[in-house]
Amino acid sequence: MKTKTIFSFILTIVVLNTSAQLKIGDQPTVHEKSVALDVKGGEGKQGLWLSRVPDTSVTGIRAFNPPDGLIIYHPPSGKIFFRSNNAWKEYLKNGILSIKTPSGTMTGPALANSMGNSGFDFNIMSSANTSVWNIRSASPTVRGVMNNISQRFDGTKTFNDGSTFNTGSTLNGGTNANEGLTLNGATGSNSTLTLGVTSATPGAAMTDYVLSADTIGNVIMTSQQRIKTFSNVALDGAPAPLTSGNTVVLSIVIPGAGLLNNFRIHVSPVGSGLKEGTSINWVRVFNSDTIKLAFRAFNSTETFTQADGTDMRFNVTIFEN
Asked: Which of 46, 110, 183, 215 has the fewest CB atoms lying closer than 10 Å?
């Protein structure tokens, strides 16, 4: 029985001279030419048990001057070590333990990122030391990152979660027609654009112009229509009575009104009003503070006085386009 066991063990270890390969396991006829040692566990359920060396000091395995490339298992620490440059190196177990950088070699399992002091770099730190990695800023022709100084961004940029411009931005149109600022709201919602006023912008500009949309959906800035009213204004001078069948042109003067020819004007008499049969044929701007009115009497004499005998007065409404 003992002889049979020894014979089986000899059959298990086969040396193939043609490929200089040593095979250990249950498949002696299968081999790879590039493999010097092939260990195949029985039925694929067995592995390689590394040599267990509890003492790596000078009184232990180091007394035999172990060569580089040697691999051992260290039971006290539960780690695998390999020999490199005449020293034991721990096999990577949980992650990167050291990084070589221009600043030196960083060691330690707890590596962390941190912003650098200069504002345009970031640090990779461990408990042992810190390595500074400089990241170049983006330029019109070079990739990089956003920094805290003035920068230019070329090409199409998409900001999915919105952007805040605190100190002002210039939005210039492109080289093609209709290029510029586009605000796309979600379906069924509105887009909001807030325009600020600089110190060089007159305060009246906020009331003189409004944003509106044209027929194809473009947002445009147009002059805002302002309405001015002047109440109880008298005709210029004391006009003579207007007899039936005649027409007369009279004036209303409003100092500082700032009238323009394209303003629309509505004039209505105060109190009892004009006599029946008297009409205002037309009203127009004569100059910056004067309005001309054409009156016509058909079947009575218009005295331009009220029932109490005082001069007739008018309310004037001006629509600025």
From this structure: 215
d(CA 57, CA 78): 16
Report yes or no: 250 and 239 within 8 Å, Cβ to Cβ: yes
Is the residue at 187 inside a domain? no
Listing DSSP states for 104-152 in one string gives: EEEE-S--EEEE-TTSSEEEEE-SS-EEEEE-PBP-SSS--B--SS---
Q: Are residues 37 and 109 in the same domain?
A: no
Structural domains counted in the chain: 3
Residue 110: inside a domain, yes or no? yes
- Tell me the per-residue pLDDT of 17-52, one tens digit each, with 9 for 90 and over: 555 678 887 777 777 888 888 888 777 788 888 889
- 232 vs 306: CA distance, rounded Å: 13
- Scan for tokens 């325009």, then name that residue: 195
Query: How far lies 263's CA from each of 193, 207, 245, 270, in Å?
Result: 30, 17, 30, 22
Strand-pairing partners, residue 250, are: 293
pTM to 2 decimal places? 0.34
Whether 182 is covered by a domain: the verdict is: no
Contact between 62 and 56 under an 8 Å Cβ cutoff? The reply is yes
Range of the domain at 246: 227-320
